[in-house]
Amino acid sequence: MGNNGKCLSVSMSQGTVALNHNRREHTPKNANANLSHHNVYIKTCSDLEKAFNEIFGNDVANYNEKQTRSDRRIKNYYQKIHSSEGKENTAKTCYEYVFMFGNSEDNNIAELGENESVWDSRNMLLELEKAFEEKYPNLKVVSAVVHMDEQTPHLHIDFIPVATGYKKGMEHQCSLTKALENLGFQKTEKLAVQNWQDDAKQLMTDILNKYGYEREYKNNTEKHLSVDKFKLLKENEELLEETEINKKVVRESREQVAKIKALQEKLQTETEEFVSSLTPAPTKKVKTLFGEKEVEKSAEELQRDKEILAAQSALKACATRQEKQEIKEKQLKELSKTVEKEALQNEIERKTLVEEKQALEKEKQSFAMAVALKARQIVDKVLRSLGIRLNRGHDLTEQINLAIQKERNGEEQWKQR
Asked: What counts of helices (H) and strands (E) characterise the chain?
C-alpha cells in the first residue's frame, strides 16, 4: 500500500453514557493505572442534569413566560426528557460515541514506547474532537476524554443534541434526529443517524490521511470491536484462561469420579448380594371374617420385604458413616486450631529471639568500645608517667615505637658524654 504501508482502520460506536468512568474516578479492571497520566481530559462533566438545563435554560424560561396555565410550564426539562427515556419514539438526554483508530492488534497501548501509531492516534483523536465540535455544532459536547490506559487509544465524546425549527413548544429542543436534520443529514435509503456516522467516519479518514496513514477496511468485523465489546471479549478471555488453569483440577476430578463410580458399582454388587441373602418372613397375617389367618406371601411381597430390609440396613450404614465423618471433621477443626495456635506461638518466640539477639549484639558492641577505651586510657597513663604524650588521631603503635627510639637515642647521647 501507499504511504510506506502505514494503515489504520477507523471505528465509531455508540456506547453507554458513563461520565464517571470517563473521568477515571475509579480505575477499571481493564485499565493500566501506570499509564493513566497519558489520558487527556478535554472536557469533563460531573453533573449531567445541570449541564443539560443550562443549555436549554433560556428556551425553558421563554416558553414558561408565554404560558398562562401553570400546569403547562416546564419545571425541569432534563427530568421531563429523562423520565420518558426508553419509551417508543422518545428522545435521550445524552449520547456517547467512542472513536478509535486501529485496534488492539495493530495499535496496542502495550507498545506505547515503540509503536509510532499509538502517539499519532492520540494526536489524531485530539484533532478529531476539535473538528467534531466545529462541524456538528448542534451536538453540544459536554464531555470529551482520550483514554491512553486501555488496550487501544480511543476518544469518548458525550453530547446533548440541540434541535431547532419547531412550530410548537420551545425554540430549541432535545432531539437527535431533528438536530441531525438541522445539520443536513436527511433520511435517505439510510437513517439520518447512519448518514451522519458515515460522514463522521469520513472526517476520521481525512485526519488519518493528514497524518500520513491510509484507511484500512476490516473484512472481519470481529477484529475491530467497540470498546464495550472489546471489554466483554477480554473478560471472556480471562474466563477461558481461568478454565485453562483449572484443567488439572478437572482431570483430577474425573479420576476421582471414576474411583467413586467403581466404588458405587462395588457397593451395588454387595447390596445385591446382601438383598439376596435376606430371608424375610415367608408368611403374613391377614384379617378375615373368622379372625386373623396366616397365609404365604407372594413372590412380589417377598421381594418388596427384601428391598425394605436392604434400605433400612443401608440407611443405618449411611448414618454410621455420617457420624464418623462428623467426628473426623471435628477432630480436623481442633487440630487446625492447635496448629494455628502453635504457629502463632512460634512466631512470637521467633520475634523474641530476634529482639534478644539484637540486644546482645548492642551489648557486645558497647562492651568492646568500653574495653578499647579503657585500654587506651591505661596505655595513655603509663606513657604519660614516662613523659610520653600521645597525639590523638595518629597510630598508637607508631607513636610508642617513636617514643622508645627517642629514649634510646637519649641513652646513647648520655653514654657518649
From this structure: 11, 11
As beta bridge partners, residue 214 has 7
Instruction: Please state the φ and ψ torsions of residue 43, each to the nearest 5 degrees.
Output: -140, 140
Q: Is residue 80 located within the same domain as residue 190?
A: yes
Specify the pTM.
Answer: 0.53
Residue 235 belongs to some domain of the structure: no
**Which DSSP letter does residue 37 get?**
G
CA atoms within 13 A on the CB side of 221: 4
Q: For 98-136, how does the pLDDT look when each residue is reduced to its tens digit (9 = 90+)?
A: 999 988 887 787 766 667 888 899 999 999 999 999 999
Q: For residues 234 and 187, what is the distance between their CA atoms, to the nearest angstrom?
A: 36
Which CATH number fits the domain that encloses residue 97?
3.30.930.30
Count the domains in the chain. Answer: 3
CB 107 within 8 A of CB 8: yes
**Tens of pLDDT along 165-180?**
998 899 999 999 999 9
Spatial separation of the C-alpha atoms in residues 162 and 172, rounded to whole Å? 6
* Residue 109 near residue 101, CB atoms below 8 Å: no
Say whether 83 sits in a helix, a strand or coil: coil
